[in-house]
TrEMBL record:
It comes from Paracoccus isoporae. Monomer. The keyword Metal-binding applies. Pfam families: Anticodon_3, tRNA-synt_1g. Binds 1 zinc ion per subunit. The gene is metG. Zn(2+) binds at C143, C146, C156, C159. Residues 432-459 form a coiled coil. Its EC number is 6.1.1.10. This is Methionine--tRNA ligase.
Length: 568
RNA sequence: GGGCCUGUAGCUCAAUGGUCAGAGCAGGGCGCUCAUAACGCCUUGGUUGGGGGUUCAAGUCCCUCCGGGCCUACCA
């Protein structure tokens, strides 16, 4: 039994996430966590909401709530949706937790002691009317290059030229529209990532088995241009972790908070500490290699936009602390899911969001489609037609109908108990060995986190059941040799029990229904032959209702129309 | 501008430089009747974006052109 620490990139608190966000981190992380638990390993699966930063403050201002209250409410909402999708976090924390405050301040203190923090005085735009400093992209104005009137302070979207906010003609606040702006001097802390460049580069170089997507992004940031740059880790905001060195004040930094990208990854640790406090466990044995974490395998899941923070910033924090914190062992990164030819868009309400999805269909439909089409090698596209076809075929026809035909046939000929009868023949032994090969391949793909390939193997295992049934034809056998038909049906029923276990990482809700209907165990089929005889003659079961209703053409058309843009 | 990824069957995707480039879906034919008009078997379909090169051998390596996507450090 191994110990696995799994973290999913933290979803930002600002609003409900869409399916692209879901498939990029939380869902595959859940798949892996469920699989490893199924194999009997000890798993700590951590996620949390990322609650700090300007967008959270603005979103709260918009609803008129204090930001802390807004975050509390949105956290509850995201938790509920996570539960609805069956995301099996051991703890779903909050980056605003006291645990994270303490840890973030602790790391900052350690980094400062190691000489990895420097103070920088810089000029930033302050909006008098908004009463806050404005991040570059919250300043709008006319582009000096092309004359576009809605250029942002960091870049003009029209001509793609990189800008400095002070370049803008007629600058104004993107928040209030106020032109009462001034440039003020402000002091910030910078993390000296440049000083750690060689160490990080060496570390990345040693990760030859990581996805190319992960290492290529890391190397780009390490070596492009002048190489890895130092980054500001503080902001002039109210909402966040106050800047301190451990529990000591940080002279000159009063009223400032740490920047989200600094405190957010630390919340992986913070959330584990939250878990410990809530459950009464020991979080350090997951995170401190001097306190029991030396045998932990740590895997992170994230979308490609998060890779720089996890390959550079967070490791600099961890390594730079000089303390024996657990460093990530494998970073599984994903491309984007696109929606019907374009991007999912939160602002335009384009695409399907987590709450919409659960209103439409049970979670397992979404889980199956998203995971079996995970954007691993490139961006992948969601279309309603593809979704309808895949789900109807894979879930309703291949898996659902298999369960239906076996259980209903048994009920009509033998009743709702596993029938006694003849012993296995060649066909059954061949099936068992074919399934064994497939199960071992499935495990291998899951171990490698090859998600689409794992889904294909699982589907192939379902197909084997239909092939067997077709060849064995118990409905025909029954007429001349009921004893043999009973054996064939018994094997079919046992296949359902096996499918429940194997499918659980992808389809946890369906798997639970199957286990309940079959009264079968959740034990992983290390020995497939044994698993296929686990339900003995006389074992009672019930015929489940059809597992998956098909998506009709009318539904598909209606949904396609409804989610094309402008969310109501 | 620079960098990275990507282009393979109608669609979605596979293929450590090594048999005839494979699956699933869709299409066509046949079979079955237990089952959600489901299942099974067979089958059509590719000049691997174009061109050039290296090699005994290229989807795979190199060059070039064309198309798509992403990143480029103050959104997170």
């Amino acid at each position: 039994m191994a110990r696995h620490l799994i973290t999913s990139a933290l979803p930002y608190i600002n609003g409900i996430k869409h399916l692209g966000n879901l498939v990029g981190s939380q869902l595959p992380a859940d798949l892996y966590a469920r699989y490893l638990r199924g194999r009997g390993h000890e798993v700590m699966f951590i996620c949390a909401t990322d609650e700090h930063g300007t967008p959270a403050e603005l979103a709260a201002a918009k609803t008129g709530e204090p930001v802390a209250e807004y975050c509390r409410r949105m956290h509850a909402e995201q938790s509920k949706l996570a539960e609805g999708f069956g995301l099996s976090f051991d703890h779903y924390g909050r980056s605003s937790s006291p645990q994270n405050h303490r840890l973030t301040q602790h790391f900052a203190g350690r980094l400062d002691a190691a000489g990895l923090i420097r103070e920088v005085s810089e000029k930033q735009v302050y909006s008098n009317e908004d009463g806050r400093f404005l991040p570059d992209r919250y300043i709008e104005g006319t582009c000096p290059n092309c004359g576009y009137e809605k250029a942002r302070g960091d870049q003009c979207e029209n001509c793609t030229k990189q800008l400095d906010p002070t370049d803008l003609i007629d600058p104004r606040s993107a928040i209030s529209g106020s032109t009462d702006l001034e440039v003020r001097e402000t002091k910030h802390l910078f993390l000296r990532q440049s000083a750690m460049r060689d160490r990080i580069a060496e570390w990345i170089d040693s990760k030859t088995d990581w996805p190319v997507l992960t290492t290529s992004i890391a190397k780009k940031w390490l070596f492009d241009g002048d190489g890895l740059q130092d980054r500001g880790i503080t902001r002039d905001l109210d909402w966040g972790v106050p800047v301190q060195k451990g529990d000591q004040a940080w002279p000159g930094m009063e009223g400032k908070v740490f920047y989200v990208w600094f405190d957010a990854p630390i919340e992986y640790i913070g959330a584990t500490a939250e878990w410990a406090e809530a459950q009464g466990g020991d979080w350090e044995r997951w995170w401190r290699t001097d306190k029991g974490a030396e045998d932990v395998t740590y895997t992170q899941f994230m979308g490609k936009d998060n890779v720089p923070f996890h390959t550079l910033g967070f490791p600099v924090t961890i390594m730079g602390s000089g303390e024996p914190w657990k460093l990530v062992d494998y970073i599984k990164s994903f491309n984007y899911l696109t929606y019907d030819g374009g991007q999912f868009s939160t602002s335009q309400g384009r695409g399907v969001f987590m709450d919409d999805a659960l209103d439409l269909l049970p979670a397992d439909y979404w889980r199956w489609w998203l995971l079996s089409h995970a954007p691993e090698s490139g961006d992948s596209e969601f279309t309603w037609e593809n979704f309808q076809q895949s789900v109807n075929k894979d879930l309703a026809d291949v898996l659902g109908n298999f369960v239906s035909r076996v259980t209903k046939f048994c009920r009509s000929k033998f009743g709702e108990a596993v029938p006694d009868g003849a012993a296995w023949g060649d066909a059954e032994r061949e099936l068992a060995s074919a399934i064994t090969r497939r199960v071992r391949a499935y495990e291998a793909q899951m171990d490698r986190m090859e998600i689409r390939k794992a889904a294909a193997e699982l589907r192939a295992i379902w197909v084997l059941g239909n092939e067997y049934l077709q060849a064995a034809a118990p409905w025909a056998t029954f007429k001349e040799d009921p004893d043999r038909a009973a054996m064939q049906v018994r094997l079919g029923l046992n296949l359902i029990g096996l499918y429940a276990v194997l499918s659980a990482p992808f389809l946890p809700f369906t798997a639970a229904r199957l286990r309940e209907a079959m009264n079968s165990s959740a034990a992983w089929p290390d020995d497939v032959d044994a698993a296929l005889t686990a339900l003995p003659p006389g074992h009672a079961f019930t015929v489940p209702d059809n597992l998956f209703a098909k998506i009709t053409d009318d539904q598909r058309d209606e949904w396609s129309e409804r989610f094309s843009g402008v969310r109501g």
